[in-house]
Amino acid sequence: MKKILVSMCLYGGEPVRYDGKSKEETAPVFIRWKEEGRLVPVCPEVFGGLPVPRSDAQRTGDRIIARNGNDVTAEYLKGAEEAVRLAKTENVICAVMKEKSPSCGSSRIYDGSFSGRIIEGEGMAVELLRKAGVRVFSEEQLDEVQKLIELEG
Q1: Which of its termini does the chain have fewer beta carbons within 10 Å around, N or C?
Q2: Cis bond leading into 53, ω under 30°?
Q3: CA-to-CA distance for 22 and 153, rounded, in angstroms?
Q4: What span, in angstroms and rounded, lies between the C-alpha atoms of 10 and 96?
């Protein structure tokens, strides 16, 4: 059975988001994958050593800056590298990552101004996953992931 790397905030359980809350995915297909043991949860921010809760952060170019002004790029990079390592170790068919996250956004992220403005872009973990050859989807594309599973896994 092919596995799917997934943002831990979507997987549920222990809160990992900056605000200490969960964004657990409840779509029936996602729950089925979870029950099958197909999902490999990752949280690049926590893997990089950041606490829960923590100051929210946004990506600006190659840097990740927290609202409090701290540059947390090194932590995000460390966590992104761990996500790539797990994707390779688990031989995942793809990844489902949380849209708009500075780590996990697959097509949209916040613009770095903390104004709520969303732009086209990808999070740091998604960038590294794609460079490593992993197909990345958002939680808004579960139907596409299911089609991929039916074709390949």
Answers
A1: N
A2: yes
A3: 29
A4: 9
What's the one-letter identity of residue 41? P
Q: State the amino acid at position 75 in one-letter form.
A: E
pLDDT of res. 45:
97
What per-residue confidence (pLDDT) applies to 152?
82
What's the N-to-C CA distance of the chain in angstroms? 6
SS3 of 7-42: EHHHHCCCCCCCCCCCCCCCCHHHHHHHHHCCEEEE
Backbone angles phi, psi at 17, to 5 degrees: -65, 160
Distance CA 80, CA 73 (A): 10
Is pLDDT of 79 > 70?
A: yes
Reading the block at residue 145, the tokens are 């992931």
Q: Percent of the chain beyond pLDDT 90?
A: 95
